[in-house]
Amino acid sequence: MNYITQEHVAQVLETMGHNITTGCEHLKQQKGDVYTTGIPSGFYDLDIITSGFHKSELTILAARPSMGKTSLALNIALNVSIRNNTKVLYVSYEMNYKKIIERIFCMEAEVDAMRLRSSYMRPNEWKRLSECLENIHNVFEDNLNIISSCDLTFDYLSDEIKAFVSNNPDSLVIIDYFQLIPLRDKQDRFVELSHIASAFKRLAIETDAPIILVSQISRKCDERPDKKPTVADLSECDALAQHCDNIIFLYREEYYDKGNSEIRNKAKLFIDKHKNGSVGYVDLLFQGSTFRFKNPIKINYE
After folding, report:
1. Is 57 a catalytic residue?
2. What is the layout of strands, in order, in the sheet containing 88-92?
3. Which of 46, 134, 150, 300 is the most exposed place for a label (fewest CB within 10 A)?
4. What are 54-68's pLDDT values in tens digits?
5. CA neighbor of 78 nearest in space, from 108, 111, 100
């Protein structure tokens, strides 16, 4: 059993003091920017609420199928690895390397996925693609580490994460997605998923790393007039909500009302659980053809 000692308290106070000093210096130099104490997502309004992804915290990123949760997870991975120059471990149970790399090129070069797949692209798209080739190559070489496998057990995944974080202490881990992790006991899926959910939180604490766990949500929300997901909709596993620190739901009303031009390309992130802060929602823009999520343009009338 580990007891909290005066030494532990002193360490926390020292860290808090360092964060306050660093934050004040940062604010003096970066007026108007979003200051985060964790790893920034690259989405400004989300970072204002969460102050980034923090060490030892487990964040659930959940949505119904076709909402774009894998695209959002990859967008975060790219924002962190490219624009924040931070190492990321991205584990995919859903897509192979080729599909992941195609999506990354579409996002960064902002080229249409269908045209990229068919090689029937416009001249300006070929130009953008060629311009980002070196940048993407450098990211894979330096910061973005991808594991693509559909048969990684939790134990093996846990070992991979521990090894990665041990070599890269200030890194981010993203797993896509929870319900695809192979189970040992197929007879009692609910119980084993509950054990894995609690194990992910213990893993975040043990490695002292921020972990983002992508999750499906139940189809129950599709049956309601108000289809915005809630914590009760987390698919197959109540323990996810119990053990995680943060829950972020991705919701695109356009999915249910495709003819409404007022909501076209609009998405919302609902922060429905935030153990160390406030809850709320933020607006994003989504380009489905390029798998790209963007910050909305804000007009300053001052």
Report:
1. no
2. 144-148, 88-92, 172-176, 211-216, 58-63, 246-251, 266-274, 280-287, 292-294
3. 300
4. 999 999 999 999 999
5. 108
Using an 8 Å Cβ cutoff, are 77 and 134 in contact?
no
Q: Tell me whether the omega of the peptide bond preceding residue 177 falls within 30 degrees of 0, making it cis.
A: yes
Report the percent of the chain where pLDDT is more than 90: 47
pLDDT of 217-252, one tens digit each? Answer: 988 888 888 889 988 888 667 788 889 999 999 999
Tokens of 250: 């991705």
CB neighbour class for 233 (10 Å; exposed up to 12, middle 13-18, buried from 19): buried
Per-residue tokens: 163: 């090894």
Whole-angstrom distance, CA of residue 288 vs CA of residue 256 = 15
Encoded amino acid at 43, one letter: F
229 contacts 212 by C-beta, under 8 angstroms = no
Instruction: Tell me which of 14, 25, 94, 131 is the catalytic residue.
Output: 94
Would you give the DSSP letter of residue 295? P
